[in-house]
Amino acid sequence: MMSEKIAVAVDDLTVAYNYKPVLWDIDLSIPEGVLMAIVGPNGAGKSTLIKSILGIIDPIAGSVKIYGKPYSKQRDQVAYVPQKGSVDWDFPTTALDVVMMGTYGALGWIKRPGSKQKKQSLEALEKVGMLAFKNRQISQLSGGQQQRIFLARALVQNAAIYFMDEPFQGVDATTEIAIINILKELRKAGKTVIVVHHDLQTVPEYFDWVTFLNVKHIATGPVKDIFNDDNLTKTYGINYKVAVQQ
Amino acid sequence: MELTDFFTNYTLRTITLGTAVLGAICGMLGSFAVLRKQSLLGDAISHAALPGIAIAFLITSAKDSNILLLGALVSGLIGVFWIRGIITKTHLKTDTALGLILSLFFGFGMLLLTYIQKQPNANQAGLDKYLFGQAATLVESDVRLMLIVTGISLIILLLFWKEFKLLLFDKNYALTLGFNTRFIDGLISFLIVLAIVIGLQTVGVVLMSAMLLAPAAAARQWTNSLGVMVGLAAIFGACSGVFGTAISASQPGLSTGPVIVLVAAVFVTVSFIFSPERGILFKQLRLIRNRRELELKKTLYFMYDIVRKHEDVSRPHAIRILNNFQGFTKNTLSQLAEKDWITIQGQNWSMTSTGFETAANLYNKNLPEP
User: B82 and B112 share a domain?
Assistant: First the structure.
C-alpha cells in the first residue's frame, strides 16, 4: 500500500521569532500516502513547521523538498488548510466564493475563474456536505461549517499533499467525523495528509503516522510503532498516561 | 447662488465633477483600506503628504498644483514605507506605527509651512489650503488628473480583482498559491496613496481619511458581496461630493471639504441605523420579535405539557388552568390561535395537530443542518 517515495523532506530546518528558536534543526521525511498527525505541546512549533514548509515563514536555515524539488516549483502538488481563526469571517463573500479561491493558484495572475472552476468548487462543496450553503454569507456559518468550507477550498486544489492546521479545533463531533472520513478517503486515493493535531486520544484511531515535535524533532513513524509512553514523555515532559489516570 | 447656477455655472460644474470623481475613487479604494483593517492608514498617509507639499514649494517656489501633488505623493509613499518598516522590523504594533508616522510627518510639515509663511514670497499665500482643502480652487486640469487617476485605478482594480480579494481575505493562503503578496499589498497601498494625494487640494490633509472610510463603512452595512460593496462605496462617495458641493455653494461661507465629509457622515449614520441586516433599528426589531416569539412558544409548550397527558390531543381545556403560568395573556392566546396552533371556544382552548407537532419539535430545531 505504502510506497517508499518521499513526499516531503525537511532538512536541518531552524526557525526563530525574535532570536528565540521555535524550531531547532528539524530533520523529517514523510513518505507518500500517509495520514500523519503532528503532535506536541503549545508552542512546540507545529503550525510553524507547516508554515515554513509552505514558505509562509522564512527559516533561518535548512531546506524543504516536495517530491525532491523546492516548494516554489511544486505548488500544484500542495494544498493548505489554515487555522480557521486566521481569517476574518465577516469578510463580505459567500461560501462558494471562498471555495473558488482554491482554483486561483492554477489560474495564475489576472485570469478569472469560469464555469469549469465553478463546477469544481460545487463538487468540493458537495463532498464536504455544504452544497446547500453555497450562497450563504460566510459569517452566518457555524464554526464547523467554516472549517468544512476551508477543507473544500483545499480539495478544489486537487493536490497530492494536504497540510492542515488544527482542522478539528472548535468543531462538534459530527463535523469531526465528517472531516476525518474525508481525510481517510484522501489517503485511500494515495494522497499524503499532514495534520496538526491536539487530541492525543484520537491519534491511534484517526492516523497511521505520527510526528512528535517540541521545538526539536522527537520521532516520526507509524503510530503502531512509536505512539508510546516513551515518546509522549519526551514530548510533553510528563508521563502522559500516568497523568491521565490521575 | 441659485439652483439653476448649478447647471449653468462653468466653475461650479467643474468643482462638482471633481468632488464627485474624488468621492467615487475614495469610496472604491477606501473599501480595501477598511477590509484590510487599515482604516487609519489613510489618515497617516494624508498627514505624511504635508511635508512633501512644503518641500516641493521650497524647491520650485511655484504653486503649480501638479508639482506640489508630486511632492505629496513622494512623501506619502515614504510615510507608507516607514510604517511598514516599523511594523516588520520592530515589536511595535500597527496603531503605534501609524500614530508615530502621522504626528512626525505632520509636525514636520507644519514646521515647514510656518517657515514658508514667514518668507517674503507672494506665492506662498494659499499653501495652507492643503490643510483643510479648498474645492473652489479646482480647475479643469485638476479634474482631468482626477479622471485619469480614477480610470487607471479602475482598470487595475478590474484586472487584479481576484488577487485583491484573495489577499484581503487570506494573505497566507494567497502566498501558498504562489501569488506575490508583497506586490499585491504594495499595489493596494499605492492606489490608496494616489487617491489621497489627488484629494488633498479639495478636502485637505486633516479630513482626507474620512473621504476614504465613510463611504466604505456605509456601503459595508448594505451588502455581503465585495463587488457590490466597492460599487456602493463609489456611489456614496460620489453623492457626498455632489451634495456637499451643492450645499456649500448654496450658502456663502460654507467650506466645501468639511461639508462633503459631513454629507458622507450622514450616509454612514443612515446606513448604521436603517440597513436591513446589520442596521441597529432592524436588529433591535428582530430582537423584540424573537423575544415575543419565544414567549409565545413557552406558553405553547406549557399547554403541550397539559395536552400530552391525555389521549385526545384536541380535547378542550379551561383557560383558567393557565392562570398560574406567568407570561400568559389574552393577547398571547389570540396570537396562538392566529398561528393555528390552538383554537378557542368560549372559556376553553384546545390544541390543534399543527400546534402539537410544533410544540413537540420545538427544541429539536437547534440540531445542525446537514
Answer: yes
